[in-house]
TrEMBL record, chain A:
GO terms for cellular component: plasma membrane. It comes from Cohnella nanjingensis. It comes from the Bacteria. This is Sugar ABC transporter permease. Its main location: membrane. PANTHER family: ABC TRANSPORTER PERMEASE PROTEIN, INNER MEMBRANE ABC TRANSPORTER PERMEASE PROTEIN YCJO. It is found in: Cell membrane.
UniProtKB/TrEMBL annotation, chain B:
It is a multi-pass membrane protein. This is Carbohydrate ABC transporter permease. Residues 66-266 form the ABC transmembrane type-1 domain. Keywords: Cell membrane, Membrane, Transmembrane, Transmembrane helix, Transport. GO terms for cellular component: plasma membrane. Its main location: membrane. One of its GO terms (biological process) is transmembrane transport. InterPro entries: MetI-like (IPR000515), MetI-like_sf (IPR035906). SUPFAM superfamilies: MetI-like (SSF161098). Belongs to the binding-protein-dependent transport system permease family. PROSITE patterns: ABC_TM1 (PS50928). It holds the Pfam family BPD_transp_1.
Length: 291, 281
């Protein structure tokens, strides 16, 4: 870190990014946070109301539903992370066609969640979808639940869908992590007579701790913001039964008389949750800048 | 050399089926017209009628949407990447007089990572509105208003990737260049840039895909259908073609194919990019 450069050049290099960040990221966050504590009547200036917006929020049954749905998605997505590990293990074996598997499983990841949501609509919808149609045809009518649009199953279905979409990404990520692991430990263990299972649980898993932490935090933050699949499949479900934090905020913002204090309060809640996850991660890893 | 256990092909095959089935099904389904979809959801289409595709294509003004998405992507991705490259170079390599400045910038930009776009959606709307009063093309309902927002969105992730990549370049290379009389910009572009190429291309691809598929901001800022980007139109289709599922599917497939092609062509780079990031993570 010791290339000599004139002082003003050093600052100048950062300036464009800084300006962009300040205007389009930092200021909006501060603005949003401040609005969370104010009330803004239409066409008038906002005024401070303290925690009133939050009282309103927690008394709003739809908010509670949204919170519940979002929590289901977050926890579910985290629980499904091991599937990505399995895929990563699979990819680690070099067999013909491994690249094809890699590419095909990664493909859904890069596509908009709207696209995958819409495509899944035709599988999962109780009316038009293949799933229930198929279950009916083979006589398992009892299993043909209302995967989406019903009372309770929607968040679970969406969790599965979102995890499906991300599976390829996780698989490749774990594949990379596995490739990075030094082989000598494994060889030493084999010499000492360890079985594959022992090697897996006692060497592989502990070495993946850092990777797990990283992925978990990203999954949590991503899950908190999950709303696109919900939106496409159910537009918030019958009478808001399948809203998430994100989709509910979106809904309020779309409706013209939207209560801005409320959306901002929700935004603040989301922000706090995301920050907590990030801070937790930083604490657990305690990365230092100059390694 | 590990022996290939033939059994591995079973889970491999299952994965391929699992991950591709929805798309294959959507593709097959898209050849049905609206009525067939309702009456007979689980069978194969009666005929592979390409005429339906042409009809949907005309109805949706696909080329216009494509052009809009392209404009936004071509403008915002290089701009954002350039800015972040410059600032990352400053953070990673240049000493500041005040010792903690670099770290400060680094963490500042990184903190953007936990900002879900929904949180700042409304503020972005009003910023764009006010900007529009002074600088018209950047106002509401203009594609160009999306450009700085998307560029700003790339800052946290870009900073993370670039700074790690730059830090892993041995300082001796740069020192050697300086001794040989290289200017600062020379070092920056001729050495750093070239050595960071894998990261740069990975970031480029991710940014392109991210901007191309972006929905919330675009939907908030664009009103006129003629200005829509592709993802917006997709959501619009669901209400527009609300009962005509066939058209919806055809539109989806038509939008999907360029993306998949892009991905297949660049897939090696993309996956290598994730591998690189996996190492850093």
């Amino acid at each position: 870190m010791h290339i000599f450069a004139k002082w003003w050049i050093k600052q100048l290099l950062v300036v464009p990014t800084l300006i962009l960040f300040l205007i389009y990221t930092l200021y909006p966050i501060i603005d949003s946070l401040m609005l969370a504590f104010s009330h803004k009547p239409p066409f008038k200036k906002p005024y401070f109301v303290g925690l009133d917006n939050f009282y309103g929020l927690f008394n709003d049954p739809v908010f509670i539903i949204a919170l519940r749905n979002t929590t289901i998605v977050v926890i579910g997505s985290v629980l499904l992370i091991p599937l990505g590990l399995l895929l990563g293990l699979l990819l680690n074996v070099s067999f013909r066609g491994a690249t094809a598997v890699k590419v095909i499983s990664f493909a859904p990841n890069i596509v908009s969640p709207f696209l995958t949501g819409l495509v899944f609509f035709f599988i999962v919808d109780p009316g038009v979808g293949v799933l229930n149609g198929f279950l009916d045809k083979i006589g398992l009518h009892a299993l043909a639940f209302k995967w989406i649009g019903g009372e309770r199953l929607t968040p679970y279905t969406v969790t599965v869908l979102d995890s499906w979409k991300g599976l390829g990404g996780l698989g490749v990520f774990f594949y990379a992590a596995l490739k990075m692991m030094p082989k000598d430990m494994f060889e030493a263990a084999t010499i000492d007579g360890a079985t594959s299972m022992q090697k897996f649980w006692k060497i592989t898993i502990p070495m993946l701790k850092e990777t797990f932490k990283f992925i978990t935090v990203l999954t949590i933050i991503g899950g908190l913001g999950s709303y696109q699949t919900f939106y496409i499949l159910t537009s918030g479900g019958p009478h808001h039964k399948s809203e998430t934090l994100g989709s509910y905020m979106f809904y309020i913002m779309q409706s013209k008389g939207g209560d801005i204090g409320k959306t901002s309060a929700m935004a603040l809640v989301m922000f706090i949750l995301s920050m907590s996850a990030a801070i937790l991660y930083l604490h657990l890893t305690r990365k230092r800048l100059d390694e | 050399m590990p022996k290939v256990n033939k059994l591995i092909y079973i889970p491999a095959g299952l994965i391929i089926i699992l991950m591709s089935f929805p798309f294959v099904w959507g593709f097959l389904l898209s050849f049905k017209d609206g009525i067939e979809i309702f009456t007979d959801p689980i069978s194969l289409p009666r005929s592979f009628n390409f005429r339906l595709y042409i009809d949907t294509y005309k109805e949706s003004h696909l080329v216009l949407l494509f052009k809009n998405s392209l404009i936004v992507t071509v403008l915002s991705v290089p701009l954002g990447m350039l800015f972040v490259f410059l600032s990352a170079f400053s953070i990673a390599r240049l000493d500041q007089k005040i010792k903690w400045m670099s770290s400060f910038y680094y963490y500042l930009f990184l903190s953007g990572m936990c900002v879900n776009i929904i949180i700042i959606l409304r503020s972005l709307y009003f910023i764009t509105m006010y900007t529009g009063k002074n600088v018209a093309p950047l106002g509401l309902d203009s594609l160009y208003s999306l450009v700085p927002i998307y560029a700003a969105g790339g800052i946290p992730f870009g900073t993370l990737l670039y700074v790690s990549a730059m830090r892993s370049i041995p300082i001796e290379m740069e020192e050697a260049a300086i001794i040989d009389g290289c200017s600062l910009f020379g070092v920056m572009f001729r050495i750093n840039f070239v050595l960071c190429m894998p990261v740069i291309s990975a970031l480029f691809i991710f940014s392109v895909l991210g901007v191309w598929n972006e929905f919330p901001v675009a939907s908030m800022l664009l009103n006129n259908y003629h200005n829509y980007t592709l993802p917006l139109a997709l959501a619009f289709f669901k209400s527009e073609f609300s009962r005509d599922y066939g058209s919806m599917l055809r539109a989806i497939i038509m939008i999907l194919i360029p993306q998949l092609l892009f991905f297949i062509i660049f897939q090696k780079r993309i996956i290598d990019g994730v591998v690189t990031e996996g190492i850093k993570g």
